[in-house]
Design a protein that fits this description.
43% of the residues lie in helices and 23% in strands. Strands 20, 21, 22, 23, 24, 25 and 26 form a 7-stranded mixed β-sheet that branches. A 5-stranded antiparallel β-sheet has the order 6-5-9-8-7, sandwiched between helices. Strands 11-10-14-13-12 form a 5-stranded antiparallel β-sheet, sandwiched between helices. The chain has 6 domains: 118 residues, no CATH class; 109 residues, 2-Layer Sandwich (Beta-Lactamase), CATH 3.30.450.20; 106 residues, PAS domain (Beta-Lactamase); 105 residues, Beta-Lactamase (2-Layer Sandwich), CATH 3.30.450; 164 residues, Histidine kinase-like ATPase, C-terminal domain (Heat Shock Protein 90); 117 residues, Response regulator (Rossmann fold, 3-Layer(aba) Sandwich). The protein has 26 helices and 31 strands.
């Protein structure tokens, strides 16, 4: 046994293969526990080689039944029973010689071995039967039907599958011709198949339809060959059946689908292509040539030929798309242009799929192309329309929204959010966004309108309200909407638009304010004319009394009080004319810094000890056009307003700055033309105002002060003076945050006029004067003033009277003092007629009416103007000035 082990191991080393068996002898006296002889299976395997030689083996042992040994033992026992060998006789003889005991022992061992081999034989027979049964099962239940036919074509043997395919019990198949189961239309095919098999020893195949059973159609493939006996004669047919019914049906379905696909691609003008990557063969169907405007004979049939049909500007992009698909980076999905030989440009959409080999190699690429030129043109037109609509929405400051009233979901457009200063992600798309942004005064009304419209959605949804801007201000919005009617007639989606009408509202407010101011102005001007005439008389005579009466005379005090009251009444008239912008202003270049500094001491006294005045004046300030006296009035009024807003004291800061506004950097309020301005800011640290108060502060007679402590004309006067000076005024304020007034005056190029110190001019004279005034009291006053100054005075109540008197005078008059506005003929006409007679006539116009600006007599040095009411000394000085002016 040792030699046997060595042989197996040597073989394992030499072949470097693993051996699977090694017989091992039974030891004497070993207990046999199995009726079947066993052996030890040893599987030696070579160890890894060292320096080209196997270094050794490693083995695994297992005890397995030895059926071969059992079979041999069985045969040997039978032979020995019938023909005992000579060696056995010698062994027995030898045993006899050696002793009975040893002989008995060997016989017992032999008996045990023979019994064991007999049992193994029986086991082998059982295993053989099991194998045979398994083979029969494999035969019967094979997916294919197996038939054995005799030379006449009758079935002599069949498996179960054949019976299933032919839809008949296997026992009933025996003896029936196979042709009996073939459909009539395919009998000829089967006959030809039979002949081919008879003439050739090769296997032949055909497809036939079986006869219908219960209207079921079945198709099979028949594969047949002949079987010969030892002499070479055909004795049998071996036939195999495969049911291909489902395969045929699938093939027919695929064919139908392919036909439909072809019809669909033709109808949709879709071209199909297939590129064999390994052989670089590109196949196009007929429609591909139509798409590219190319003839087949001009097509090269490879990748470069296909790429050459692409527009030159798109070729690199198309090639890169193919390479990305081959690198598995991106699916092939691209749009490009093709240029036909005629020069026509078409747009193509292409999609493709790469087919890969098992080793990851790209084998083929197949796909479709279709013309999308019309669609692209429509998309371009739609995009252009969208862009135009977008620009229109932006230009009109309109935002769109879509409200699903079922789900309460609201979609706000980008423009809707941007018109309120928000980005797309800053506002949630929900109904509460709108209600939260609504102005408190508008919320209940706007929501009630929405609910009423939802209950009865007749006509269009239209309403106006204010929404809070991101910067805290409120924008006026005009909302229009209507329901989109769905196919079922339901009204779910309310589609609408928001248009910012803040500017329109402001213009409307300005227009209403202008109308109001115009009405007030007309009324003020009418009142001022008569009032000024009355004040002229009152103030004139009061002044004359104070001049004549001694100061200790009680009548002097009464006259002085009357004069003071008259002057205050004149100031009130001036305020009425100022806010209605009908006051006579003398606009001239001034420096605001100089004006502010000139009244700073007065301002400090006016503000009191509890309010600190701070001046922050820009150096080298530009000149502006304004009336110096009226500008001082503006500053004083705003200072008084600020003082009243700081009852516990505070700071008042007056600052000046240069400001430049351009189309790129417009003014923050959006209403001032581009240009250079001087900004005057007056800021207090007082109580501030709420938005509702700020909306009315420039209205005449509006005041928040207690009854009797304010006329409501202060800020209205400021507003009128600033606007009449071509300026702008704005206010910023919040409760407890103080108030700042911003005044902007346009820059003028002329330098400020330096006031000259004029010598005291004597007012007396001896010239002959003609005084024309339709108001008797005013005329009497003027005549009395001038006669007291030494002039010879001729008076007339009407222009006709003045012309008649002038015509009768033997010598010329030196000056005409006349009211401008009189019945029938004005003072201007009178002056022109008299100058026809006396060309050097000096004229002093006077009026209680207010024009938009002081009359300009710069081109007529012989003419001057004085505004009613005036004091006697002012009238005398003005007249003396015009008489003494050199011409």
């Amino acid at each position: 046994m040792a030699s046997a082990v060595s042989v197996y191991e040597d073989h394992a080393v030499g072949s470097q293969r693993k051996l699977v068996k090694k017989p091992v002898a039974l030891k004497t006296g070993a207990k046999i526990t199995s009726p079947v002889p066993t052996r030890r299976r040893k599987s030696p395997s070579p160890l890894p080689p060292k320096q080209g030689k196997v270094s050794g083996t490693i083995s695994a042992d297992a005890m397995v039944p030895d059926t071969l040994l059992a079979s041999r033992l069985s045969r040997n026992v039978s032979n020995q029973k019938e023909h005992p060998p000579q060696a056995t006789r010698r062994d027995i003889a030898s045993m006899s010689a050696k002793g009975p005991h040893q002989l008995v022992h060997k016989l017992q061992a032999l008996q045990i071995e023979l019994g064991t081999r007999n049992e193994e034989l029986q086991r082998a027979q059982r295993e053989l039967k099991a194998v045979r049964n398994r083979n029969v099962d494999l035969y019967d239940y094979s997916p294919a039907g197996y038939l054995t036919l005799d030379t006449e074509g009758k079935i002599v043997e069949a498996n179960l599958t054949a019976g299933t395919i032919l839809d008949i019990n296997r026992k009933l198949l025996i003896g029936q011709p196979l042709a009996h189961f073939i459909a009539q239309d395919d009998q000829e095919i089967f006959r030809l198949h039979w002949q081919k098999v008879l003439k050739s020893e090769m296997r032949h195949r055909c497809e036939v339809q079986l006869r219908k059973v219960a209207e079921a159609v079945r198709f099979v493939t028949i594969e047949s060959s002949t079987a010969q006996d030892e002499s070479g004669h055909t004795t049998r047919w071996r036939t195999m059946l495969h049911d291909i019914t489902e395969h045929r049906q699938a093939a027919e379905t695929i064919a139908q689908l392919a036909e439909r696909l072809d019809l669909a691609t033709r109808a949709a003008q879709i071209g199909v292509w297939d590129w064999n990557i390994q052989r670089n063969e590109l196949h196009w169907d007929d429609r591909m040539f139509t798409l590219y405007g190319m003839k087949k004979k001009h097509f090269g049939g490879d990748y470069s030929a296909g790429l050459s049909g692409v527009h030159p500007a798109d070729r690199a992009r198309c090639d890169e798309a193919v390479q990305q698909a081959l690198r598995m980076e991106k699916a092939y999905d691209i749009e490009f242009r093709v240029r036909w030989p005629s020069g026509t440009i078409r747009v193509i959409k292409a999609n493709g799929q790469v087919i890969w080999g098992t080793d990851g190699t790209p084998l083929r690429m197949t796909g479709v192309n279709y013309d999308i030129t019309d669609r692209k043109q429509a998309e371009d037109a739609l995009q252009s329309t969208k862009e135009q609509l977008q620009q229109s929405l932006i230009a009109s400051n309109t935002g769109l929204w879509d409200w699903n009233t079922d789900t309460d979901e609201v979609s706000f457009s980008k423009e809707w959010k941007s018109q309120l200063g928000y980005g797309e992600e800053e506002l949630a798309n929900e109904f509460e966004t709108w209600t939260t942004l609504l102005h408190a005064e508008d919320r209940d009304r706007a929501i009630a309108y929405v609910r009423a419209y939802l209950d009865n959605p007749v006509g269009n949804y239209q309403q106006e309200f204010r929404l809070r801007h991101k910067n805290g201000s409120y924008r006026w919005i005009a909302a229009v909407a209507s329901f989109m009617v769905e196919t079922a007639g339901r009204k779910v989606h309310l589609l609408g638009a928001h248009t910012d009408i803040t500017e329109r509202k402001q213009l409307e407010a300005q227009f209403r304010q202008a109308q109001k101011m115009e009405a007030v102005g007309r009324f003020s001007a009418a009142v001022a004319h008569d009032f000024n005439n009355l004040l002229t008389v009152i103030n004139g005579y009061s002044k004359m009394l104070t001049d004549r009466l001694p100061s200790e005379d009680p009548r002097h005090k009464m006259a002085a009080e009357t004069l003071a009251a008259g002057q205050r009444a004149g100031a009130l008239t001036g305020q009425l004319l100022a806010f209605s912008r009908r006051q006579v202003l003398k606009l001239e270049p001034i420096n605001l810094n100089d004006s502010i500094q000139s009244i700073s001491s007065m301002l400090s006294r006016l503000l009191g000890e509890d309010v600190t005045l701070i001046l922050d004046l820009a150096p080298s300030l530009w000149s502006v056009g304004a009336d110096k006296g009226q500008f001082d009035q503006v500053v004083m009024n705003l200072a008084v307003n600020a003082r009243d807003a700081m009852p516990n004291g505070g700071e008042l800061t007056i600052s000046t700055h240069h400001a430049l506004f351009t189309p790129e950097t417009p003014d923050p309020h959006g209403i001032m033309p581009s240009g250079h301005y001087v900004e005057l800011s007056i800021r207090d640290t007082g109580q501030g105002m709420n938005p509702e108060t700020m909306a009315h502060i420039f209205e005449p007679f509006f005041t928040t002060k207690e009854l009797g402590k304010g006329t409501g004309l202060g800020l209205a006067t400021v507003y009128g003076i600033v606007k009449q000076s071509q300026g702008y005024i704005f206010v910023d304020s919040a409760p407890d945050q103080g108030t700042t007034f911003h005044l902007y005056y346009p820059r003028v190029s002329a330098a400020p006029i330096v006031a000259e110190t004029k010598p005291v001019v004597p007012t007396r004279g001896s010239e002959t004067l003609l005084v024309v005034e339709d108001q008797d009291s005013v005329r009497s006053l003027i005549v009395g003033i001038l006669m007291r100054e030494g002039y010879r005075v001729i008076e007339a109540a009407k222009v006709e009277d003045a012309l008649r008197v002038a015509a009768s005078l033997p010598e010329p008059i030196q000056a005409l003092v006349t009211d401008i506005v009189m019945p029938q003929i004005s003072g201007h006409v009178l002056a022109k007629r008299l100058r026809l007679v006396w060309p050097d006539l000096r004229v002093l116009f006077m009026s209680g009416h207010s024009d938009l600006a002081q009359p300009d007599f710069s081109e007529e040095p012989r003419t001057a103007y004085i505004q009613k009411p005036f004091l006697p000394k002012d009238l005398a000085a003005r007249l003396r000035e015009i008489l003494d002016k050199a011409i």
